[in-house]
């Protein structure tokens, strides 16, 4: 492969699109198709149609009103049409000179001067018409369609498209056996002109069904292989000792576990008691008590003489965990000569060095922190359990780095991932097929339901009156803003301005400000004042999204709520209703220029009002955003489904999921070839 310096701009663009192998090019399917197989006479054309016309240029001139443009008139013998170009090259002007016979394709508009096309695609007339529809591919600026079409055709001709479906599988999945992978790809790159355009666009054509089944099979097989590889690895067998740390912690907790917490704690303990590495996702709604379950898993690990690490995405969240875990575990660890270590990126060198020694000696039985936990100099010699909170907020490389802190005995650590964004069933069946999932599906007693209201920004004064009433009752309030500083692009009120205006509107009330660019010490001081009740209102960016626990806060105002994602809104709402007082969440929105909200924003806010169930919120979020954005897969590297749709193709997903183990068992070579074709190196990501 030539070095990137010797590549042309289109070749670099192909790499940028991930089109490195012949099979990648073959699987780069069109976004849409254009019909260049026929010529439409202007006399028979209809307004709004995308058509191809052929005629002679009768006039070609530059116009300057309302702005510089090239205006070309062509006559096809039945009528005339004006072609308008607002950006053009001298070579185009030459090709469209009076007397030239050309073909133009574009959308026909009726106007004051008869038919018009704006920026049509033009070519000289005379060549034979194509016999198939013309593909239009997704591309980037330096990669013209013509170059990409040639590259795709060459890749399609060279790629190994031999069947990697075992005999009879297509029939078993209910597919049309006449459509092999080769035939499906050749057809979809150049469909016959008489095909139903609807069956192409809604992906119901048998050729599409074959590709969806192939893609889903590759995904399911890769996850089965990943799970089997993991099952072949070894991890320490961790079992709680009678009367040991695990039992002592249960007795020392100031509350009783819910039935759901007990159930998932037992599921995790069973996994830890096996010598196969645990790979489990612990999911539970905001405030369902995942931290105490993690503490119990840590207690089992420490009881067995090993170390545990807990990594959280933000310092505020890591510190919340640290404080709770210290409170619960340190009194039990100190008599054993053990401690809890704390590691973050903002620590001074001296402080961090002081933490590294007990970690390296094994005295620090539990290490809590941010991404600093995975740095090279952090070497826990007996790491047996890695816990990753809000795992979707970490990139794949970071999750793999924590897993790669191998034990001295050459064993793998057990892995427990936690998420307050529940995973809808279809996602669990596909992206998380290799994970065991534990679900905390009840909230602890004492959590009050939160009333959610959607309020226009024009009623801000009423919201401030509501805040004043809450403060008079001795309650506290969050006000969350989406930006820290003025942005020329987004006309949004920022946290600093809001802090100032609320301070003026609420004289005598301490209004705090918290955002991610503040020094850590300052952030901690602000949070301490709010937690102690000294501060009445906390104006913040989304740094309070997870982990902040102030039971006295009873009102959450989210400014420009239309700019937030659904799971983020749900997480923010979860900061209130943590005490006995009736709590509310106000979603302040700014209508668009037409006085209305966009459809997606409206759907999100409607979902927030209609349900407080995190699982239903997650299902709707998946519907609105699709799996790629829901999972953060673009940043994490998880292989996205390009052709199959998790909801629409659910029956096919279930059928493929059922047969995948049999395919792997009976046809291992075919299965390996199938995964390599579809995923290339991406299957490595499943290990995270």
UniProtKB/TrEMBL annotation:
Record family assignment: Belongs to the helicase family. RecG subfamily.
- Organism for this UniProt entry: Ramlibacter aurantiacus
Name by which UniProt lists this protein: ATP-dependent DNA helicase RecG
Q: Domain Helicase ATP-binding spans what residues?
A: 271-440
Q: Its function?
A: Plays a critical role in recombination and DNA repair. Helps process Holliday junction intermediates to mature products by catalyzing branch migration. Has replication fork regression activity, unwinds stalled or blocked replication forks to make a HJ that can be resolved. Has a DNA unwinding activity characteristic of a DNA helicase with 3'-5' polarity.
Question: What keywords are assigned to this protein?
Answer: ATP-binding, DNA damage, DNA recombination, DNA repair, DNA-binding, Helicase, Hydrolase, Isomerase, Nucleotide-binding
InterPro entries hit by this protein: ATP-dep_DNA_helicase_RecG, DEAD/DEAH_box_helicase_dom, Helicase_ATP-bd, Helicase_C-like, NA-bd_OB-fold, NA-bd_OB_tRNA, P-loop_NTPase, RecG/Mfd
Please state what class of enzyme this protein is.
isomerase
Instruction: Keyword check for DNA repair, yes or no.
Output: yes
**Record-listed E.C. numbers:** 5.6.2.4
Q: Give the gene symbol.
A: recG
Q: Which GO terms describe its molecular function?
A: 3'-5' DNA helicase activity; ATP binding; DNA binding; hydrolase activity
GO BP, sorted A to Z: DNA recombination; DNA repair
Q: What PANTHER family does its record include? A: ATP-DEPENDENT DNA HELICASE HOMOLOG RECG, CHLOROPLASTIC
Q: Which reaction does it catalyse?
A: ATP + H2O = ADP + phosphate + H(+); Couples ATP hydrolysis with the unwinding of duplex DNA by translocating in the 3'-5' direction
The source's domain of life comes to Bacteria
Report the residue ranges that make up the Helicase C-terminal domain in this protein: 463-623
